[in-house]
Amino acid sequence: MSSERGLWPHQSEAVEKICASLTTPGRATAVSACGTGKTIVGAESSRRIAPHGRVLVLVPNPGIAGADRARLRDPPRRRRWSDRRGMR
Known about the structure:
Layout: H1 2-5, H2 9-21, H3 38-49, H4 62-73, H5 81-84
Helix pairs in contact: 2-3
């Protein structure tokens, strides 16, 4: 399933672990470095856990909320690192 969303291996592993830890009601915390795709991991985990339901996402400030909203609706496809930075 990870290949259809274009997840990197570390993101696929995180999604699998998050979903496994939330098979019963509760909460989970995923810690990852900046730029590793935490929003994408959260979006894919949410899609798997509640495919037909709603998910509440809380963020610390409005700036993050706007950026995350766009990514959650249409997550980026996997790209080479050089493409992300505008380099060819």
